[in-house]
Design goal:
131 residues; mainly alpha; Serine Threonine Protein Phosphatase 5, Tetratricopeptide repeat; 6 helices; 0% strand
Length: 131
């Protein structure tokens, strides 16, 4: 929250960069990171409709750049699933979290912090769905 004023000032610039005709010249990873961070910022500000396409685009770029089983893809899946969870789209979020968890477990093992966080996110989602 402390950085939100700065994020707010830079958001329009970030979006302009990734949507311009110069975007193909950007390194794919840098573009995906920028989209992901802007999407997370918008999600934290409860601008869900604005955040979702950015998080989806970041996921798409990382899948194309690294393949479907890369940890960056897992992180993007986890982030998108978080947005879907807070917008009560649990059925859409669950397969994303399960896929992310599989990638993290395969890449890092069961006790790695990102694996544990993803497992926790999945458990929270399943717990909410069961209510």
């Amino acid at each position: 929250m402390r950085t939100w004023p700065a994020c707010s000032r830079w958001l329009a610039h970030a979006l302009a960069v990734v949507s311009s005709d110069k975007a193909p010249a950007l390194e794919a990873d840098a573009c995906a990171r920028l989209l992901n961070q802007a999407g997370l910022y918008l999600q934290y500000r409860a601008s869900y409709a604005e955040a979702e396409p950015l998080l989806r685009r970041a996921l798409e770029i990382w899948e194309k750049s690294y393949g479907e089983r890369h940890p960056h893809v897992a992180a993007a899946l986890n982030n998108l699933a978080g947005l879907l969870r807070v917008t009560n789209r649990h059925r859409e979020a669950e397969p994303l979290l399960r896929r992310a968890l599989t990638i993290f477990e395969t890449s890092y093992g069961p006790d790695y912090p990102q694996t544990v966080t993803c497992r926790n996110n999945l458990a929270r989602l399943v717990g909410q769905t069961a209510r």
